[in-house]
Design goal:
The chain is α+β, with helices and mostly antiparallel strands. The protein folds into 2 domains: about 100 residues, Alpha-Beta Plaits, CATH 3.30.70.100; about 30 residues, no CATH class. The protein has 4 helices and 7 strands; from the N terminus they run βαββααβββαβ. The strands form 2 sheets. The chain has a 4-stranded antiparallel β-sheet with strand order 2-3-1-4. It is globular, with a radius of gyration of 17 Å. The two termini are about 30 Å apart. The N terminus and C terminus are likely disordered.
Length: about 140
């Protein structure tokens, strides 16, 4: 049985195909844009900006509490300050790929070196609120 959509976080993946000489400028522009989104839009959870080893691809991963929060933020950069399409042109991206995903499972290592694997739909699996699975390395 699927869990309700509102219990899942939402991830936007944007991959840029660029020439290596544009890497640092694009990373800087995406960092500034992401900081504005984090500050100005409720529902922001986290973001990463990653580069391939050859410097030809940049991956911007933004995670939101809900699809609606992510969509609202994207609409603002699509036409507003820091216009997204202008950013693509300025950094001479040869191609841009967009992806939207619901997070179904999240596995993290905690500060005490344990693996934290929370269930996303605890009620349907009979798991009490706050319980999760831990595995010490």
């Amino acid at each position: 049985m699927q869990s309700p959509t509102n219990e899942r976080s939402f991830t936007q993946l944007i991959e840029f195909d660029i020439e290596p000489q544009w890497l640092q400028a694009l990373v800087t522009a995406l960092s500034e844009q992401t900081e504005r989104l984090a500050r100005d839009f409720p529902g922001f959870l986290s973001a990463t900006i990653q580069a391939s080893e050859d410097g030809r691809r940049v991956l911007n991963c933004l995670q939101w509490q809900t699809r609606e929060a992510g969509d609202a933020a994207f609409r603002s950069v699509e036409h507003g300050e820091g216009n997204f399409w202008r950013l693509i042109q300025q950094h001479r991206a040869k191609a841009v790929t967009f992806g939207s995903f619901q997070v179904l499972r999240n596995i993290e290592r905690s500060l005490d070196d344990a693996l934290h694997c929370p269930w996303l739909n605890q009620a349907q699996r009979g798991i009490r609120e706050g319980d999760s699975h831990y595995q010490k390395r």
